[in-house]
């Protein structure tokens, strides 16, 4: 069972809130906002299967976005989290919206979710999938050395952070060890590149997009409005693709405003 592989941490009290990270990341991505969120919610931050400490399915087993959605749904059932609030970043945003479409979420707050780019906008995702496959053929010691070079650290800061100056997020780098042949990242990258969100959602939805997101263009937020008419769109100034690291207070506020809206009497769910 997919949910038995999921490692998580839980803190705080109140209505349940589940946090879902992006492709290649782990639950620690949410650390900057946990202290703020746990004062309002029973917060569960998990490692998606294949990332952090959670094991991926075997090489011959199914492993795609739909499978991840089902695994997270079973995980919530096992913990007794009935219709929790969900917050997700990138791949985690898509999983949150898919669960909301199933009616298993009280609300969904998503940041730069995959599934809304098209045509040239999606070129970065497709190049990433191809590049991951190519990099997997390079010996790991070479991949690690290249990723740790000053040039590639600078590229990582520029791609992943909203304020990529030389003194900003010096520890940010690409995880070259995640690009081994058959790794979860390499297996999922093509799935992410071709994924499109098409379902219908009723519960309250907020979509936040960093105005300095260099992975998924902020223009995709307009497509969210076309597919989820009632979604609240929030621009995140100064934020890149992982806004929790850039402006945690802003991200926390976007989440708690959505959850408060969902908990008001008479709000559709």
Automatic annotation (TrEMBL):
InterPro entries per the UniProt record, alphabetical: AB_hydrolase_1 (IPR000073), AB_hydrolase_fold (IPR029058)
Membrane-spanning residues: none
Keyword terms, alphabetized: Hydrolase
Highest taxon above the source species: Bacteria
Residues of the AB hydrolase-1 domain: 17-253
GO MF annotations, alphabetized: hydrolase activity
Protein name, per record: Alpha/beta hydrolase
Organism, scientific name: Thermobifida alba
